[in-house]
Amino acid sequence: MRSRRQFLKNVAGAAAGACLAGHGVAAQARRQVMVGGRRVRVIDVHNHWDMPIPPAIVKGTKFEEYAKGASFDDRIATLDKMGIDIAAVSVNDFWWWETDDRGLARAICSHHNETLATWHRMHPDRIVGMASVPLQFPDLAAQMLEEAVTKHGARGVTVGGHVNGESLSSPKFDPFWAKAAEMGQLVFMHPNGSQNLLEPGALSGRGGLGNIVGNPLETTVFLSRLIFDGTLDKFPNLKVCGAHGGGYLPSYLGRTDVACGRPNQNCIIKKKPAEYLRTQILADTMVFTEDGLRHLVAEMGPGQIVFGTDIPFGWPVHVDYILDHKALSNADKEAILGGNLMKLLRITS
Q: What's the predicted TM-score (pTM) here?
């Protein structure tokens, strides 16, 4: 597990930057995003909150430090400034997966889901919640996903790239995948530095490589296993969005696509990998360059790309990156900025 102290330091710094950037926003008009002279809805699928847990829930456990978290109070001002109409808010650190106490895991996830439901009620046209679930207990995760959707109004669910080193393509997690597919819930996957794949310290040092290299690597392996281990075939209605542009998978898709044509690969999948990226796998726009986004759309199609910012972490992804793109049609821009997510997250107004 990464250093909680460092995580909070990063969040605090990013949140402070957002607050500073947001000073005066209350007096500033909310940005209205237009495509082809028409107002379009902008929806952010990659929007985080490091949510504090009530001390009573984690008292006496190794998770006491998680009672600290970040403020959420400036979020609407930030969305207004950036031209984002709706944020699908999720956590991005699944630390509670390390407990074998079902009651504790349930209490933590219940707090997350209830709190996001409260924020949605406060800002029904601006905030929707992505459910937190205790995936180390797949049956409980399925139960809590249904509860989060039916009781707390969640519009999807967020997961990490592994559960204590175990791939989510393992059949033991099928109850969760089955429930997500049955309920039509978008699954947003967020990585944690490839700690399940690399030796400790392999990406330490300058440049933040655990994030820059480790995060997309973990996403690449996660999505590849869902393909090659047959999870997506078992649940053809399942929709999974990989953070950070789907990792490296769309960027080197040709190599993945020919894998099963080589001898002795023990492939069981029913389609070529590229077909899953055009039907069941989605990616957010966090690839930062015009050509990177052009390539992502070329490989996956505009219907599989969704807007994401990673607020509050200050990455340079904003609506102008889509609006000014020379290779995208107006229809593509509208779909990527919000049209695709309106369908996936069941947003009707």
A: 0.91
